[in-house]
Specification:
Elements: E1 2-4, H1 10-23, H2 27-35, H3 41-48, H4 64-76, E2 81-84, H5 89-104, E3 110-112, H6 124-130, E4 137-141, H7 148-156, E5 160-165, E6 177-180, H8 194-206, H9 214-223, H10 231-241, H11 248-257, H12 264-280, H13 284-292, H14 296-331, E7 338-342, H15 350-361, E8 365-371, E9 374-380, H16 387-393, E10 400-403, E11 407-413, H17 417-428, E12 440-442, E13 444-445, H18 452-457, E14 473-477, E15 483-484, E16 490-493, E17 498-501, H19 508-511, E18 517-528, E19 531-543, H20 547-562, E20 570-572, H21 574-584, E21 591-595, E22 612-616, E23 625-632, E24 638-641, E25 654-656, H22 673-681, H23 688-694, H24 700-713, E26 716-719, E27 722-725, H25 737-745
Parallel strand pairs: 1-12, 2-3, 2-4, 4-5, 5-6, 7-8, 13-14, 17-19, 20-25, 21-23, 21-24, 22-23, 24-25
Antiparallel strand pairs: 8-9, 9-11, 10-11, 14-18, 15-16, 16-17, 18-19, 26-27
Helix pairs in contact: 1-2, 4-8, 5-8, 5-9, 5-13, 8-9, 9-10, 9-12, 11-14, 12-13, 12-14, 13-14, 14-15, 20-24, 23-24
């Protein structure tokens, strides 16, 4: 479903002019800002001039002063300090921040990052590895908040603990100095990543020298999918500046990936995945070694190693994804959640695949892998559904869990799996139906060419990411002439620029069908042969179901369906259908509401918030949707035909027999085909709909009817959507199923 942000009101237009003048930004940039709620001079100032001046004092964090005091005591008494991190990108970046902090203080500290096999946080197996190191003080980063028992054990071994973390708080905090941005305090921002909290501690310890570590904070914040609003925006903005002259580890990763200009996007898709891959493949310490090295050649060698892990990770992810998809097909999608377990699945990859499936099927997903007799799950959710809260409500069936609103880890005993699965599904099914509807929010409808300078000005909205996404635009195109690019990519011309659709080859036929399209796209400035030009990157599209041309396409689809099957569907009245529609909407998935005549949707206003498509669903989510001119129901088992006359319906479908799809009077006499046939001889290269509209002396519906009968009989051929006469074919009109049915109806 596409949601276009409304045009600015007169009051907002006045504000737009003021903001554009005050900050020397384009009307387009100021319009985007206002539509995103940044609608005053003060708000714009804070957003556009983000940076160190907006940083919050570290001492606002509860217990940070106590952590500082304990560390200074350790330094004065030459205690052995160990930094204990996590194996993901945030964890190794956090560990690196404190490693360099103590290095600045002239102190060598131990660093420890467990491998994924050890489990998340402080675990029994990890304790066995760190006890021989004989630390006096352990400082955790990006973990520890849920490790109450393990911390108690370490304290009994005369080891002090400082926990720095950002994950959701358990009911009982560990008995030690705990610094977490989610603990209620004078600190007004609770959305830091682990590296953000570690930086605040570093700031207290070494002052402004800590700002030299903000590149780690930027990478970790983006990698951990934290929102890029509030203080995170300031931290990332400042961190990105350090990439103008990157430290050896990041320079090596950039050189290896041929990145010249580092942005939040290149970090998200290139740098962060490579660091994360090490932890996912059980080689987290190689990533830590890379981040700790100050020698470029050593860093380059380590970067190549880390990159090889990423390549292996990508390959293994595809295998796991296909296995999960196959299992899902067997299980069915008639559920509000997806919970799967697979033999041999890697715990390091389940999170990635869970996120991919959650996006694809628009519902929370948990994939479990069996580790040491316990199922370890990676949960990922969709906007609006708090998976951490859901896990908390079914905690009686778990061995433990932790994480965030949108991402969490959970452990379940094998014997409790089915009970957990049932309870989790019950919990998710309580959520609002609207949360499950895929929605794309578009910043602006484009009806004219955008200027190069206006698009370049949008870069002032960087850094882009969660909470501050790259602006999305929408344009409507009447005729799409698609051309193939290398691989599975395609291109076509848009209103404001040339459009590229990566992996869009599977949609080529849908884009070329003659219907108007709403194209959703991002727009960039690219350079080709030394010349700057605008380039659009397609993120999705919808067929436009409106106007006479679209009605004719639907009528054509209706006729084609007449020959596709038997009328097996159950017949109901309009009132009965309304009750069925109401009942089907009680759950967010499983039903196609098929309609041939768009005007008949007026009888069903409760469907106005559903996404609409043409002929067939473009995704496999099985989310409820309206489909005009249904030709293929795919895996949907429940199809409600809101008007009568569609013979595609199966015996499991229901048809409303009191609302007619079409009431056009058709002439089925042989003589009516003669002028159509003559006109076809001189039609040229046209679709059947364009042919019908071109011949204004012939009723358009009659023309399409005749053409479809001739196509059914083989007299007219259709190739790539265009029609022509096959002079070598002779046939009897009475052999046409379309004709026989229409004769009966007329």
């Amino acid at each position: 479903m596409i949601e276009i942000k409304p045009d600015l009101t007169q009051e907002q237009l006045n504000i737009q002019r003021e903001i554009s003048k005050e900050f020397s930004i384009s009307p387009l940039t100021s319009e985007i800002l206002i539509k995103r709620g940044i609608d005053t001079v003060e708000k714009c100032k804070k957003f556009l001039y983000c940076g160190k001046q907006n940083f919050l004092s570290p001492y606002l964090l509860k217990n940070l002063d106590k952590a500082e005091q304990r560390i200074k005591k350790a330094l004065s008494e030459n205690e052995k300090i160990l930094i204990y991190g996590d194996y993901d990108c945030d964890g190794v970046c956090s560990t690196s921040i404190l490693y360099y902090t103590f290095k600045e203080l002239g102190v060598e500290v131990l660093t420890y990052v467990p491998e994924r096999k050890n489990g998340y946080g402080i675990t029994e197996s990890s304790i066995k590895e760190i006890l021989p190191l004989k630390p006096n003080l352990i400082i955790t980063v990006d973990c520890g908040i849920s490790c109450k028992n393990e911390i108690e054990y370490l304290k009994n071994k005369n080891i002090d603990i400082i926990v720095t973390d950002h994950h959701e708080l358990p009911e009982i905090l560990p008995d030690c100095i705990t610094v977490n941005c989610k603990i209620k305090s004078d600190y007004p921002y609770d959305n830091l990543c682990g590296s953000g909290v570690a930086y605040k501690l570093a700031k207290a310890l070494i002052g402004d020298k800590a700002d030299e570590l903000l590149d780690f904070v930027a990478v970790a914040t983006i990698a951990d999918s934290m929102t890029l609003i509030g203080e995170n925006r300031d931290l990332v903005k400042e961190g990105l500046k350090l990439f103008e002259k990157p430290r050896p580890c990041f320079k090596a990763l950039c050189d290896l990936s041929k990145i010249k200009d580092v942005t939040s996007t290149t970090i998200a898709y290139t740098i962060a995945p490579r660091i994360n891959a090490s932890g996912r493949m059980g080689k987290a310490n190689d990533a830590l070694k890379l981040l700790k090295t100050t020698d470029y050649l050593t860093a380059l060698s380590l970067a190549e190693t880390v990159n090889s892990y990423n390549q292996l990770r990508q390959s293994d992810c595809e295998i796991l994804y296909e296995q999960a998809k196959n299992q899902l097909k067997e299980q069915g999608l008639e559920r509000s959640s997806i919970v799967l377990q697979g033999e041999g699945w890697s715990g390091g990859l389940t999170g990635i695949v869970s996120a991919r499936l959650a996006e694809e099927y628009s519902r929370p997903v948990i994939l479990f892998s069996l580790q040491d007799g316990v199922l370890k799950g990676s949960a990922r959710s969709i906007e609006g559904i708090n998976v951490f809260e859901a896990l908390n409500n079914v905690s009686e069936f778990t061995c433990g869990f932790g994480g965030h609103n949108q991402a969490a880890g959970v452990s379940v005993k094998q014997e409790n799996f089915e009970n957990f699965k049932t309870a989790f599904e019950k919990e998710i099914s309580k959520q609002e139906i609207s949360f499950f509807v895929k929605k794309t929010v578009v910043d602006k409808l484009v009806s004219e060419v955008l200027s190069l300078n206006d698009v370049k000005d949008l870069s002032k909205l960087e850094p882009f990411g969660i909470g501050n996404k790259k602006p999305l635009f929408l344009c409507e195109i009447n005729n799409v002439l698609v051309r193939n690019l290398s691989g599975n990519h395609i291109a076509f011309s848009g209103i404001c620029c040339d459009m590229v659709y990566f992996n869009g080859l599977k949609y080529k036929q849908d884009l070329s069908d003659g219907l108007s399209k709403k194209i959703i796209f991002e727009i960039n400035v690219s350079t080709f042969n030394g010349k700057e030009q605008l380039k659009g990157f397609v993120k999705g599209f919808e067929r436009v179901i409106s106007g006479e041309k679209q009605k004719l396409y639907l009528f054509r689809s209706y006729l084609r369906n007449l020959k596709n099957g038997l009328d097996k569907a159950k017949k109901v009245s309009k009132q009965e259908m309304k009750e069925l529609v109401k009942k089907s909407l009680e759950i967010p998935y499983g039903t196609i509401f098929a309609v041939n005549n768009p005007e008949n949707l007026e009888f069903y206003p409760e469907l106005k918030d559903l996404s609409t498509e043409f002929c067939r669903s473009q995704d496999e989510s099985l989310l409820n949707k309206v489909i005009f001119g249904l030709e293929n129901a795919g895996n949907y088992k429940n199809v409600l035909y809101l008007d009568d006359g569609n013979l595609y319906a199966s015996d499991k479908s229901v048809v409303c027999d009191s609302i007619k799809a079409y009431t056009q009077k058709l002439n089925c006499d042989r003589e009516s085909f003669i002028p159509i046939f003559k006109a076809l001889k001189n039609a040229g290269y046209l679709s059947s709909v364009d042919f019908a509209l071109k011949n204004d002396k012939i009723n358009a519906y009659q023309a399409i009817f005749c053409v479809e009968v001739l196509i059914e009989l083989g007299i007219v051929k259709e190739k790539d959507g265009y029609i022509y006469i096959d002079n070598g074919v002779k046939a009897n009109l009475n052999e046409s199923k379309i004709l026989r049915i229409c004769e009966t109806e007329n």
